[in-house]
Amino acid sequence: MRFLKITKWELKNTLSSKKFITIIILQFGLLILMMSFFNMFIGSIESEDGISLSPSLSKFASIDVSDNNSFIITNLNKEVLDIRLVDYNNSLKRLRDGKTTAIIVSPENPREKIESFQTINIDLYINSEDPKQSVVLNEVNSTLEALSTSISDEWINSLIPPEKIVDPEVKEEKKGEFLPLQIIKKMMIAILLFLPLFLFGNMVVDSIVGEKERKTGEIIIAMPLSHSDIIMGKNLAIILIIALQTAIWIITLLIAGFNIKNPQLVYLIVLLTSVPIIGITSVIATYSKNYKEAEIGLSLVYIIMVGFLIIPALAYISTRSLSSNISPMTLVMRIFSGEAISGVDFIIPIFSILMVSLISFWTSIKLFKRDDMVFGPRPNLIRIIMDFLGIKKREFK
Amino acid sequence: MKLMVLSKKEAQDILTNKIYILLVFVQIFIIFGALGLGMVSSVVTDPGLLDKYGATSSLKVGISEDLKNTSIVNNLKDQNLNLVFFKDMEEADKQLGSQLVAVIRVSPPPEENILFQSDTSNPFYPAVSEKINSAVDKFKLEKKLKSAGISEDLIEKIENPIILNKITINNDNLSDLAMNTSYFVEIIYGFIVPFVLLLPFFLASNIVTDSIVGERERKTFEILLMAPVSSSMVIIGKILPIFSFAMIQGITWAILLDILGVPIYNLFILILIMILVGLAFIGFGILISMFVDSTKEANSAITLTLMFASFILFIPLFMKVPYFESILNFIPTVLMVKMASSPSFEPSSMIYLIPTFLLSTLIFGLTVRYFRHERAIRL
Questions:
Q1: What 3-state DSSP class applies to A152?
Q2: Torsions phi, psi of B45, nearest 5?
Q3: Model confidence over A42-60: pLDDT tens digits?
Q4: Which residues of A touch B263 (CB under 8 A)?
Q5: ipTM score assigned to the predicted complex
Q6: Are B2 and B231 in contact, with CB atoms under 8 Å apart?
Q7: Which of A35, A294, B133, B267, by CA, is between 20 and 30 Å from A192?
Q8: Residue A126 pLDDT > 90
Q9: Residues 6+ apart with CB under 8 A from B333
Q10: Contact yes or no for B186/A54 (Cβ under 8 A)
Q11: What's chain A's Rg over C-alpha atoms?
């Protein structure tokens, strides 16, 4: 238990740092910002019929409308389209000059045509050079579809007596939640829960690489502590800080009204996941000669780790594949969504967490025990692997 | 001359920084990945594209075997849905959510009421739903008209009361888009283009912070400050190489996007926006390095600053707030979206760049001021 002494030192140093407290407060501010954006985004997409994750820039594409009778203009989507009521002749020049994406020309007397059962011809001039032409076309098609339905109904009602109209009833029963909504709701909460695990990598690097760069490694090693005490002590301090941060984040999410079922179990799994992440970070820090090298390693490994957590979780949302359970994020997502989870579903992620934790901490301690890793000159990677495998270097006599 | 010496040394440091080189390559992967993802999601959500690429086998819809050769089945077939016929509809219900995206039931004539159950969590649900609705609408209209004994000619007219004539102009300069669909255009121009073009400046602010804090940690900062050059020259010498590299990357990514089928218009205006945003980013990087003592603190502070910057720059692209519409236009990314996707240039839109210009100048002014202050303290 001597490693607890190191943990105590590290915690004392970190928690008494005003800058660390400032960073924690700023991170908290970030969480609040993300939560408000999340709520706003969910509100915005839930209010629409067609749910999508595409950007919602208002007035993204422009259309000039020549429509004296307000036949089309009132039905066009003003949120997406920048609509301008213009004279046909002036519009053509604007279209050729690329100042508008399209012009739509309504007939002179649409009402008369409807009343005399005449087909209505509408001209749409599109600038082929403008990449937003498909957006305009999509909006125009939707508008005209709605108008067509209303005209067809008007014609049918005037042609057929109501008692003769046979109108089949159509009913849709929906099962499950919209995929984009699921992705946002589940993934956003999962990302918020796992984010603290990746915010403290620099602290691990600083506590190990920093000792090498500041040349204080010798003093620590000379203390009556084993190498494993040093590594475990330093990393435990970071895990405890992550535990504190994650607890604050989960409590904040719950207070903000986020639906997280079984928060204690969610907290436990997130915290367990931090152990292998800190273990791998520790391996990189022990192996690296300096901060820059550690940063390269961390950037690469964190990209892979984020991918390992997120990709199976996304696959689970869309395919419900059981192999997706390999990621602890999938497990956490299923727990906070209130899904029934069997004991078997816990085995794969917990086993992978335990195995990666054991291997990473063992490797980190093994590396730290080597004087050449701490004081240099650092041996190459192949030599280290061969030493791990017990293959001795051939000595020439 | 002294400026050039300092810039050359900085440039060498950056070009030998493996993490920077690695992240330059990561950006290329991001561009290809984002474009690929945009294409795949466009195909999945667009019924027309699913038909075009023959990817309709996943659009499985269960229906009773008794309805074979009926008008509703023919309409559904016309929509290229993959119909799976069942003797026992309970079996179809069991497969809904796993094998089937939807199950359709039609009550016996004369009512022929339709019930369709669908699994909305399926990625193909939007396309399947659109296709089923089209088939059902057609079926309903046909049934209404046939029941009243209306002639075929009139039925056709009632079915299509509006005819849209598409006339394309400027066909010589046809937009060379990789995918001419609404979803693809919105996702690529509405988010990916500004994100990719500004990515190098996110990296640049990190590198400039590293460079100054690194000098301080190596105790070479004082030596640099003792050099007979003004504070402004030291700052320019420090930022010129990384700023130039970021600009080169931004312009290269714009050209790469153009080659990959995302034509970028108004490149010069985009470069101007990138210069202003880049100056603000790098200015922030230097300001942060003035206030911190170690690389650890600098990294944490810059990560947080960049996260806040991402919110300010990219969240407005996904916002639908009519009250703030006029304010949102002043966000540089919103202007980038409009410029990159418009073949023409409206000089009046440059008014929206004024706040960005003022903010960048302010940040940069503050940077120079604090740098002088730091220099005064250290020397």
A1: helix
A2: -95, -10
A3: 766 665 544 445 566 677 8
A4: 131
A5: 0.84
A6: no
A7: A294
A8: yes
A9: B194, B198, B313, B314, B316, B317
A10: yes
A11: 32
State the span(s) of chain B assigned CATH 3.40.190.
48-159
Q: By C-alpha distance, which of B88, B142, B144, B135 is closest to B116?
A: B135
What residue segments make up the domains of chain A, in order of their start?
3-43+178-388, 61-164
**Inter-chain touch B148–A135, beta carbons under 8 Å:** no
Query: Do A98 and B343 meet the contact criterion of CB atoms below 8 Å apart?
Result: yes
Q: Scanning every residue of chain B, which has its alpha carbon at the shortest distance from the alpha carbon of A167?
A: B144
The Cα B174–Cα A130 span in angstroms is 8
pLDDT given at position B359: 93
Which one of A106, A166, A281, A298 would you mutate to disrupt binding with B, by most B Cβ within 10 Å of its Cβ? A166
The H or E element spanning position B169 is: strand B162-169
Residue B68 tokens read as: 């074979």
Tokens, residue B343: 């073949």
Q: Report how far residue B51's alpha carbon sits from residue B53's, in angstroms, rounded to the nearest whole number.
A: 6
Name residues whose C-beta falls within 8 Å of residue B81's C-beta, 6 or more positions apart in sequence: B56, B59, B61, B128, B131, B132, B135
Share of chain B above pLDDT 70, in %: 96
Residue A124: closest CA among B74, B165, B235? B165
Residue found under tokens 């749409």: A124
Tokens of A153: 């109904």
What is the rounded distance in angstroms from the CA atom of residue A127 to the CA atom of residue A100? 8
- Beta pairing, strands A170-175 & B60-64: unpaired
Q: Which amino acid is at A371?
A: D
Q: Report d(CA B65, CA B67) in Å as an integer.
A: 5
User: If we measure between CA atoms, which residue out of A189, A193, A187, A196 comes closest to residue A27?
Assistant: A196
- Nearest CA-CA partner of A233 in A130, A103, A368: A368
Alpha-carbon distance of B125 to B11, in angstroms, equals 52
CATH number of B48-159: 3.40.190
Top CATH class, A61-164? alpha beta
- Interchain contact A46–B (C-beta under 8 A): no
* Sheet of strand A61-66: strand arrangement: A81-85, A61-66, A102-105, A120-127, B162-169
pLDDT in tens, B306-340: 888 888 888 888 776 667 777 888 899 999 999 99
pLDDT band at B154 (very low <50, low <70, confident <90, very high): confident
Distance, in Å, from the CA atom of A190 to the CA atom of A182, rounded to the nearest integer, reads 11
Inter-chain residue contact B162 with A122, CB threshold 8 Å: yes
Q: Which residues of B touch A169 (CB under 8 A)?
A: 111, 113-114
Enter the DSSP assignment of A21.
H
Q: What is the pLDDT of residue A393?
A: 64
Q: Is the Cβ–Cβ distance between A114 and A154 less than 8 Å? A: yes
> Would you say B171 and A128 are in contact if contact means Cβ atoms under 8 Å apart?
yes
Which single residue is written with the structure tokens 């030192």? A9
